[in-house]
Design goal:
Elements (H helix, E strand, L loop, with lengths): L1 E5 L3 H9 L5 E3 L2 H7 L3 H11 L4 E4 L5 H12 L5 E6 L2 H12 L4 E6 L2 H9 L4 E4 L1 H6 L4 H15 L4 E4 L5 H9 L4 E4 L1 H6 L4 H17 L5
Parallel strand pairs: 1-2, 1-8, 2-3, 3-4, 4-5, 5-6, 6-7, 7-8
Helix pairs in contact: 1-3, 4-5, 6-8
Bound molecules: erythose-4-phosphate.
Erythose-4-phosphate binds next to helix 7.
Amino acid sequence: MQIFIDTADTKELKAAFDTGLVDGCTTNPSLIAKAGRDFKEVIAEICEMTTGPVSAEVASTEADMMLKEGKRLAQIADNVVVKLPLTWAGLKTCKTLTEEGIKTNVTLCFTPNQAWLAAKAGATYISPFIGRLDDLGLDGMELIHDIRQIYDNYGYETKILAASIRSASHCIEAAKAGADVSTIPPKVFNALLNHVLTDKGLADFVKDWEGTGQTIL
Ligand code: E4P
């Protein structure tokens, strides 16, 4: 499963890309607002950090404007993926951008039917929001399972991008459910590595090695 980082914070992104394990990035208008910087400038900066996909979301809710915005965003760099909301206008724009060879990420997906329509519109990625469904007391992960089954049944090539990830266990469950990508907030990405027994085990190894008085080089 690929890892994208879900942030517009370029400092956090740089640290994540420096691990060599991160495949791309997703942003949304809320994350851009949180970063407090010029949208197109931030996207350009992120696109220079990676050759992987970088999702940048349109602001308009109307198809003609979405198309113009999407084309403008796609001009920033070759690895920009235009993010579109799961509305009729978003799907119409998705279809047009796909036909023009521009990659798309259809976002705010909460049902298998929405994901099916996005695949029919030729979306490169579909973003089902796990955490926001869990917040309502529903089972967000069930949505990933359902979409995987539908896409596999009919050979849709749209990639499942598990979004609204809130915990390290969400990542494990998304991988088990067959998501192609998980987009993860930096805090959760860092938590993927942590285990108390790893820390304790390493401290013991370092101490015992020092006790031998040996060196390897
Ligand atoms: C990513 O593409 C989504 O915009 C993001 O994962 C949403 O996460 P949230 O529900 O934590 O805001």
